[in-house]
Design a protein that fits this description.
Length: 242
């Protein structure tokens, strides 16, 4: 994408986000949320399943009438694609580089009308994400979730990463491609995910994350237990302050 165009869209989104937050008055401050951002090649499905199982057992044991915990990944992209008039089946089954671009940039680079797409895309993604944030008891996987929850005191923002070589090796095995092809894919996807975060928040900082894990050296159960502990301590600390 042209650099000047990217800067224009980024500036517009930053402005629109502030204006829309003020006009909508969406209150997510008391809603428990966990966001998980991961580098390409770091699977998070098992982690999310472990977290939802744990929190839902707690809700059941306490007799709480709160909404059950759920985790959301492609669901957000599906809803946004529907709002953008793109078939979700096409999005979920992207295979070519061009199709993967659509998945990663949420159809951004293929619109003929950039001037209206930046606002339309931003509103569609924010509206869909805010519906989950308003609900609470949600784990958001990827899709820039941390951008929407960075100021929420009852959210825990998690970053899962691993060394490049380890991720490339895993992708090589899971996709049955050569290590060279896998390395190229990992590099491309890392760049696209970085660009997506910058697209959602031009001032994005790694400090938005509360805690991080190395997927190469830490197993699923350790990460699940650590997230539970960190989340409970952050929520308890928040309740003491307010």
């Amino acid at each position: 994408m042209d650099t000047a165009l990217f800067k224009y869209i980024s500036d517009r989104i930053k402005h629109d986000q502030m204006a829309e937050d003020q006009s909508q008055g969406v209150n997510t401050q008391s809603k428990p949320i966990i966001t998980i951002s991961r580098t390409f090649g770091c699977n998070a499905e098992e982690i999310c399943k472990g977290l939802t199982d744990h929190f839902n057992k707690e809700l059941k044991a306490s007799g709480s009438e709160e909404e059950p915990w759920i985790y959301v990944n492609k669901t957000i992209l599906n809803k946004v694609s529907e709002k953008m008039g793109v078939d979700p089946h096409f999005v979920n089954n992207a295979s070519t580089p061009e199709e993967r671009d659509i998945v990663q940039f949420l159809m951004m680079t293929f619109s003929k009308d950039y001037n209206t797409l930046d606002s339309k895309l931003n509103k569609a993604l924010r509206k869909t994400t805010n519906s989950y944030l308003t609900r609470g008891n949600v784990i958001l996987i990827g899709r820039g979730g941390v951008v929407f929850t960075k100021n929420n005191p009852t959210s825990l923002n998690v970053r899962i990463s691993a060394p490049f070589e380890w991720r490339a090796q895993r992708i090589s095995v899971t996709k049955d491609i050569s290590y060279k092809e896998a390395s190229k894919l990992v590099k491309e996807m890392d760049e696209k995910r970085d660009n997506l975060m910058k697209f959602l928040d031009p001032d994005f900082k790694s400090e938005y994350f509360d805690i991080g894990f190395n997927r190469k050296t830490m197993n699923t159960q350790f990460i699940v237990n650590s997230i539970i502990t960190a989340f409970n301590e952050k929520v308890e600390d928040t309740s003491d302050k307010y």
